[in-house]
User: Fold this.
Amino acid sequence: GPQGKLRALEKWAKNGLKELQSRLGDEVISHISVIGAMAAWQFRDGSAENTKRLILKAFEEGIMLFSCGRGPYRVRFLLPGGVLESSDYQKGLKILERALKKVDISV
Assistant:
């Protein structure tokens, strides 16, 4: 429902990605979409190569992402709805931001 856990996860995901977008720019994160615990966005140009580079870097930094779509590819994550707290999500966003910055520097 409107005050349920999935609605809270959706809000955290959308707000967190939009904050990253505002700090890093629309050219880094765009086309954000969130439904419940599932979030997706486009990294850079949405190419398979750039998307894969980000996913691998994020894994090295400690979070799991996956890709979907096809030209443009999108980055996705599924939040663990039953156990996730806001503080955990904020830690995950910091890891994601670190990965985004590292993969962007290596271009």
Observations:
- The first helix runs from residue 5 to 24.
- The CA atoms of residues 9 and 84 lie 8 Å apart.
- The beta strands are 29-35, 38-43, 66-69, 73-78.
- The chain has a mean pLDDT of 92.
